């Protein structure tokens, strides 16, 4: 896999393998993607408790991926991500599209071994705040931290990042394996501090992001 030195200017927060790229796509590209998403067959949507999603590229199961070809409109954006990031060892072959309405979110989770070692999240439509918290297997005891040469819990503070429309969030290695990520199920998310606060509107020292 190629070096990620070219992404250094996009690093955010204290975790060395977390990158936030604003305006990764244009607004016109965003509109084209949203049009493709919302004109897809109704059967492509799967409704869950607090969101709905589209699954493109096949079915992920414990033994791997039962692959299907991505449609051209997704292949175009996945090729752009692969070529510009130089982080993926092979072509991106699976995409999940999650839709969150106001008051919807997702519990802290890890994407699992099928997506290791790198995940890219393209944000469309409206802003949202994603929270990162230390994985429970590392937070249980300090001895676990020490045994895996991760230092102490103070080196792993929770943090949040605002994902603005057209932005790309990329996390790999430590940010992937040691942290869970999630979205609170509230319409307006307010934080005193996010690692990319300059990207969002600030109100009296607090960050307020309204999901649309």
From TrEMBL:
InterPro entries tied to this protein: AlkB-like (IPR027450), AlkB-like_sf (IPR037151), ALKBH6 (IPR032862)
Source species, domain of life: Eukaryota
Keywords per UniProt: Dioxygenase, Iron, Metal-binding, Oxidoreductase
Pfam families: 2OG-FeII_Oxy_2
Record keyword Transmembrane helix present: no
Entry keyword Transmembrane helix: no
Alpha-ketoglutarate-dependent dioxygenase AlkB-like domain residues: 45-185
Protein name (database record): Alpha-ketoglutarate-dependent dioxygenase AlkB-like domain-containing protein
Species of the source: Lactuca saligna (Willowleaf lettuce)
Phylogenetic placement of the source organism: Eukaryota, Viridiplantae, Streptophyta, Embryophyta, Tracheophyta
């Amino acid at each position: 896999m190629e070096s990620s030195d070219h992404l250094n200017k996009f690093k955010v927060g204290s975790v060395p393998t977390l990158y936030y790229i604003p305006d990764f796509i244009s607004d016109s590209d965003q509109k084209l993607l949203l049009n493709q998403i919302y004109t897809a067959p109704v059967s492509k949507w799967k409704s869950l408790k607090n969101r709905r999603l589209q699954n493109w590229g096949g079915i992920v199961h414990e033994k791997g991926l039962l692959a299907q070809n991505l449609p051209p409109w997704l292949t175009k954006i996945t090729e752009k991500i692969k070529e510009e990031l130089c982080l993926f060892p092979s072509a991106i072959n699976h995409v999940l599209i999650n839709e969150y309405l106001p008051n919807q979110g997702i519990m802290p989770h890890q994407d699992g071994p099928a997506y290791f070692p790198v995940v890219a999240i393209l944000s469309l439509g409206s802003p949202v705040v994603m929270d990162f918290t230390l994985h429970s297997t590392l937070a249980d005891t300090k001895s676990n931290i020490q045994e895996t040469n991760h230092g102490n819990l103070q080196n792993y503070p929770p943090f949040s990042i605002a994902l603005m429309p057209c932005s790309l969030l990329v996390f790999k290695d430590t940010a992937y394996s040691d942290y869970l990520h999630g979205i609170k199920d509230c319409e307006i998310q307010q934080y005193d501090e996010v690692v990319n606060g300059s990207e969002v509107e600030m109100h009296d020292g607090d960050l307020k992001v309204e999901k649309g």
